[in-house]
Amino acid sequence: AKPVKLSEYRVADHVVKTVHLDIVLHPTATRVTAVLAVEPHPQGIAGAPLVFDGDGLTLAAIAIDGRTPAPEAYEATADRLVIHNPPAGPFRLTLETVVDPQANTQLMGLYRSSGTWCTQCEAEGFRRITYFPDRPDVLAVYTTRIEAEKKAAPVLLGNGNLVEAGDLPHGRHYAVWHDPHPKPSYLFALVGGDLAEVSDTFTTRSGRVVKLGIFVEHGKEDRCAYAMDALKRSMRWDEEAFGCEYDLDVFNIVAVSDFNMGAMENKGLNIFNDKYVLALPDTATDQDYAAIEAIIAHEYFHNWTGNRITCRDWFQLCLKEGLTVFRDQEFSGDMRSRAVKRIADVRLLKSHQFAEDAGPLSHPVRPEIYHEINNFYTATVYEKGAEIIRALKVLIGAEAFRRGMDLYLVRHDGDAATVEDFIACFAEASGRDLTQFFLWYRQSGTPQVAVATRHDPVAGTFTVDLKQTHLPTPGQDVKQPMVLPLAFGLIGPDGAERPLFTEDGKAVPGVIALDAAQKSVTFSGHPTRPVLSINRGFSAPIVLKTDLTAADLGFLARHDGDAYNRWQAIQTLATDHLVAASRKGAALAGGVDILADALAAVLADAGRDPAFAAQALTLPSESDIARELGAEVDPDAIHAARRALRLAIRSRLDGTLSDALSRFATPGPYSPDAAAAGRRALCNVALDLWASGGEADRLATVAARHRDADNMTDRFAALAVLAQHPGADREAALEAFRERYRADALILDKWLALQAAIPEAATLDRVKALLADPAFAMTNPNRLRALVGSFASGNQTQFNRPDGAGYAFLAEVVIATDPRNPQVAARLLSAFRSWRGLEAGRRTLARAALERVAATATLSADVRDIVARSLG
Ligand code: B3K
Ligand code: ZN
């Protein structure tokens, strides 16, 4: 198929102003009647044929202004409706299609999940319901009438406000929903099913009472309280932090168990993967609670950034996604510990986005070409998209940033906007030229910055030499220097922050804008050498190489006023050691003592912020080390190095670790709040390190903690420790866990994922056996991600088995999944994104597996695109 190019954007020749849908729900033959107010676009091609999108549709009836056109006047295929000579002015187009929700295994368009009818229309699902100009710049006002058998679907939900409902003969009923806000088709949604409702209200700052509803499977009502609370906090926060008030009388959330991603921000009717709604202390971990809070907020925040202001075309996806991720990160930062949230976000950014950007799937935050838009819901668009906005805020300052946001929200309300529109608001608000800044959206790859420092004790000057470089990425061999806002500080030998003066004595702000290939900055007033703390708070999403010594890093770990950089100093120490150890063996890699001392200091001070200490004690992951190595990666060597370092740290901190277990035990009943979660996080990393040697008595302690835990966080953390140590205890604990939660699919997903991540040669057979386990279902995206996704992305040594069996397995699953659900298949396949960095033997085997996928006769556009770019 032809690729779509940003440079070829033009308006639709025919737009739709209002949509009246009449949908009669039926398991296999749902009848959709659409009455569309169509008009030619003033900037479109006059007299052009009408061309609407379709996907797998059959047209049952058509009328133009109430009259059936002659058969030769139009052409309707599964994927297109063409009317050769449409009326020159506005007209009413009536279309009738019949769709089969039960047979819809792609989970795009209208489908069924455990008997509930639901929809997913972003990016291009609406065209699987009716023919339509299915593109985000066609905004219409929707009225939806839904009819169903009352017993099968007592609940009927649509976008906007409920305007009418009633019973019909023969046990049937209907509801009519009207959404007054013009919206693109991708925000359309409906739900019909037998669901329980948890309701509440929220009063907006202007006094409007909004009815809130969360709809879940019967019997799960008691698992919605946290999501509801998170929703109300999100609504309040968005008023306070961004001035955004909710704009309908109702806000509904529906949890379904078959869903391709996390959730969807349909106007007034968010549909969620139930994993991001349901939580009780015994079913969800602290991490689950935090994810629920973040995703509830994210989807709610889309009401303004995404829905009120939408995207002109799918190239602008980051306009809504990057911005909304930035907003949800800020929200979680305000709800929890800001520094810890930042650390968690940067960890995720590096492990997902940096890895993506360093391989064949690298693309700009605003791509310029795509074959399949579903493959661009990536860490780059989302997470790097959010980083760019954070960097912009550092560059222009918080006040100008807020003015720019306010301007954007007012100026573009009701628009389908572009990234240029967005950035123009900040240029105007700050009075700065942001042309160079815009390169962040156009250039792919992670900028690399090298920092060297010079101290002249006689002159009392301290000079920072900065240099930026850009590696080639697919389609971009040569790049221009970008503007990188680097927050920084200088720390004196006493550990105190030094004032910042230039050579001529002028005070300077704590941000260097590195906007050329090279730049040097000299500071005066430093008779003794200060230590540079740079890229504080990870102000620019870059790979940073400094000339800081291990001693400097140890010093920063203790004294840096920036909590993020205290953590980063420890990570850098660990990373430097692990990279060296992976190349030449642990014995030859230094830095362990300094690292262990820094960790001991963190533990001694852990009372101040246990969650921070937990982050510090969590070593870089195996894939982090692989990314640092970049080439000739041997996952077994990395695993061995990491294991050896854990043991070395353990032997130096042993007593402190076991003390931490009692010192930070959480008193009283479980509460998901950040403080309690931080204590549990610290105890659980301490436990993991303390038991890392696998001594029988220690494992017995872990097993007891597993058994006696009164919440899922501690129970599962202990199980995860046990899982790393082979033996009968492990198998017994796994079996007991399974028995205990046998009726709870979401919890068994954890059980599947944990087993798939065991770093042992027997794991692949275990995973294959689990494919046949009743807890697994090939048709459910959560199960697939838990078992296969966790194996491919979370188990470096076993996915990358030296015999290639891990690759072959993933290829098989992808080939088997693709005909049913291309989106999920393509997502799984992207686990190969770093294959080129592997050592030669594994590289050859990975290539062979990718080629096997490529050679499959009938591939979806989704998988074909990922495989082609991976091999390309
Ligand atoms: N906008 C949706 C993602 C849709 C993915 C389509 N393949 C969820 C979100 O980002 O909020
Ligand atoms: Zn989003």
UniProtKB/TrEMBL annotation:
Gene3D superfamilies assigned: 2.60.40.1840, 3.30.2010.30, Neutral Protease Domain 2 (1.10.390.10), Peptidase M1, alanyl aminopeptidase, C-terminal domain (1.25.50.10), tricorn interacting facor f3 domain (2.60.40.1730)
Domain Peptidase M1 alanyl aminopeptidase C-terminal: 551-871
A molecular function (GO) term: zinc ion binding
Domain Aminopeptidase N-like N-terminal: 92-187
Boundaries of every Peptidase M1 alanyl aminopeptidase Ig-like fold domain copy: 445-546
Residues annotated as domain Peptidase M1 membrane alanine aminopeptidase: 226-438
Entries under PANTHER family matching the protein: PUROMYCIN-SENSITIVE AMINOPEPTIDASE (PTHR46322)
Protein name from the UniProt record: Aminopeptidase N
